[in-house]
Write a structure and sequence with these properties.
With about 600 residues, the protein is mainly beta. Among the domains are: about 100 residues, Immunoglobulins (Immunoglobulin-like), CATH 2.60.40; about 180 residues, Galactose-binding lectin (Jelly Rolls, Sandwich), CATH 2.60.120. The chain contains 6 helices and 31 strands. The strands form 6 sheets. Strands 11-12-14-13-15-16-17-18-19 form a 9-stranded mixed β-sheet, sandwiched between helices. The radius of gyration is 24 Å and the shape is globular.
Length: about 600
């Protein structure tokens, strides 16, 4: 790649394009980099031999330049993809995008095609909890950049962690949290570098205060903190531009160190809010992925509601498709004030939400004391976070699709260390119920029925800030008798025979735990045949995590339940169930405790 040339980047000068009802300003002709890899866009997952369609953002024309799409799938000039893939695998291509103005630039796409029964999803995935094979070098830089947020000149320290002997490494730009210094994360960031990933930790004294310094902007730091997080996003962008310039200069010590095709942003706390700001602009920033560590959700601030209260720019309800990993700490107050939990509900691209049991906010750093009810060590929290981050980066930087079961397909069911929920949209995803239809009497395909059960649709997320405007809802079930049933019916028999997994997210509203009974799922076809699967039993059977220590619940965070429709169902009648004519799904709650009953929360019931 030759020297990078950047056109002007005024953050507020975007045009906008509509993508599935989401405004994505980064694809405008304003400020598109020249000689850059271009935006990255993960396409919907496909399955061999099954019809496929997807679409790139409208308003431009597209031409396949290098790489390939699977045989049987064609790219049309307006960005539509149609066909039936005849081969499984990972397909990556670079397109030439031409806008109406005549401006053209590259765009990268990635399409994973699975076997119809998904037997190509390996059962096991590598662990990255231990440090990797690379020795780690550190470079401390003093640099000066101009922020793309407000054009302010920023003098900042940057600590670069590099895997020794590794060139063209994926690069993570990291931003600290408020009250932390950029060198307080040596253990975590060094762990990442030991696995062949370069990390650059940015001090940024402009956007918000650190442990050892006050913020240059009192407004950003205190009066309007959403501006500080959007400012931090602009600083990360400017630093990444400079680092790639240095990596392209043969006279520089960092020459050849970073791969511009694999750029990730990561941030902790308010730095995680900066990641959310960058997610809004991720296509324009050429990002391969975003990593949130115990982050703020910028939609908490009414000033970020579209069109945004200047100089804030808008944060829309749905995030762009750029892959993301969200890591929360169980005892970080997530369900008291908005931090991370609701990000999974507005994901439109591959997303993994991980809640580390027993973790707290500060233990992700090396020096800040634990501020909450930590029940795991600092080392354990850092190793778990590093494990997930390395897996995520390797999946998207190296195309390691063997990590997909772990990240997106239930590979951590009943994990004793973390609650994991995920979203990886495919061309055959069929959402049966998401509780956001403003009608609690119906789901997507038919009516809801209840027996000895109170069913409600509302958000279990807190009411603080502007979160109520998002319209997030969940299905909340309150059992009234020993056996209670919620039925999701269909108006007509539904063919789900092509699907291999039934997925739903579950949690509860109590901190005590589901010690009171068990949870079952029942499928019923048009002929009345039944199939069963146990989702939870008080002795730890089923898909959900076991009870935590000292009567603490591990059920009060959303966890994915992934049911294998071919191998996990129990025969419920003499005639096998016909998945080509499914008529209803039942969630059945069986109470063993006649006194205590907790609410069960269900969300995003879908066939994959």
């Amino acid at each position: 790649m030759g020297p990078r040339k950047l056109e002007g980047k005024s953050l507020l000068a975007f045009g906008s394009l509509a993508l599935f009802g989401v405004l994505l300003s980064p694809w405008s002709s304003e400020g598109v980099p020249v000689n850059d890899p271009g935006p990255f866009y993960p396409l919907l997952q496909g399955h061999r031999g099954e019809p496929y369609q997807d679409a790139l953002p409208r308003g431009a024309s597209y031409r396949l330049d290098t790489g390939s799409l699977p045989a049987g799938v064609a790219l049309e000039g307006d960005g539509r993809l149609r066909g039936t893939p005849t081969q499984a695998g990972l397909f990556e291509a670079v397109l030439t995008v031409r806008e109406a103005s005549g401006l053209s630039y590259p765009a990268r796409v990635s399409l994973t095609v699975r076997e119809p029964d998904e037997r190509d999803l390996p059962a096991l995935a590598p662990s990255y909890r231990q440090r990797g094979a690379f020795a780690v070098e550190q470079d401390d830089l003093r640099i000066r950049v101009r922020s793309s947020f407000d054009q302010a000149e920023v003098r900042t320290l940057v600590r670069v962690y590099r895997p020794r002997g590794q060139s063209d490494a994926p690069l993570i730009l990291f931003h600290r949290g408020r009250g932390f210094d950029h060198d307080m994360y040596d253990t975590l960031l060094g762990h990442l570098a030991s696995h062949g990933i370069a990390v650059a930790s940015v001090q940024d004294t402009l956007s918000f205060a650190g442990n050892s310094f006050g913020a240059q902007s009192f407004d950003y730091d205190y009066i309007r903190p959403e501006l500080g997080m959007q400012s931090a996003s602009g600083v990360l962008e400017a630093v990444s531009d400079l680092l790639f310039d240095l990596a392209n200069d043969p006279s520089e010590a960092l020459f050849g160190a970073f791969d511009p095709d694999n750029l990730f942003f990561c941030g902790h706390s308010r730095g995680g809010g900066a990641v959310h700001a960058s997610h809004e602009r991720s296509l324009r920033l050429r990002l391969k992925g975003l990593i949130y560590l115990m982050p703020f959700d910028l939609r908490y601030f009414p000033e970020c509601a579209p069109p945004g209260l200047s100089p804030a720019y808008p944060i829309f309800d749905a995030t762009p498709r750029t892959p993301s990993l969200v890591i929360a700490a169980e005892n970080d107050g997530d369900l008291t004030y908005p931090i991370a939990d609701q990000l999974i509900d507005r994901a439109s691209g591959p997303t993994t939400q991980v809640t580390i049991y027993g973790g707290v906010h500060n233990l992700i750093s090396d020096r800040q004391p634990a501020e909450g009810n930590d029940t795991i060590s600092r080392r354990s929290e850092q190793e778990q976070a590093a494990d997930w981050i390395v897996a995520f980066v390797k999946r998207w930087a190296e195309g390691k699709t063997d990590l997909d079961r772990r990240l997106y397909a239930g590979g951590h069911a009943a994990d004793p260390d973390a609650a994991v929920a995920s979203w990886n949209p495919s061309a055959r995803t069929l959402v049966w119920e998401d509780a956001s239809d403003a009608d609690d009497s119906r789901n997507a395909f038919g009516p809801n029925y209840v027996l000895d059960l109170r069913r409600s649709e509302y958000s279990i997320y807190p009411n603080g800030g502007d979160m109520a405007s998002l319209g997030l809802k969940h299905t909340v079930l309150n059992p009234r008798e020993r056996i209670s049933i919620w039925r999701m019916a269909s108006d007509a028999p539904l063919d789900v025979d092509a699907h291999r997994r039934l997925v739903l997210r579950m949690t509860q509203t109590s901190a005590v735990g589901w010690d009171w009974g068990s949870v079952w799922l029942r499928l019923i076809d048009a002929q009345g045949s039944l199939a069963w699967v146990q989702l939870h039993g008080p002795q730890g059977t089923g898909y959900l995590p076991v009870q935590g220590a000292a009567n603490r619940s591990r059920h009060r965070r959303f966890v994915d339940v992934n049911v294998d429709l071919r191998n996990d169902l129990l025969a419920g009648s003499a005639t096998p169930i016909d998945l080509g004519a499914l008529l209803a799904l039942d969630v059945i709650l069986v109470r063993d405790d006649a006194v205590n009953a907790r609410s069960v929360v269900v969300d995003a019931v879908r066939f994959e």
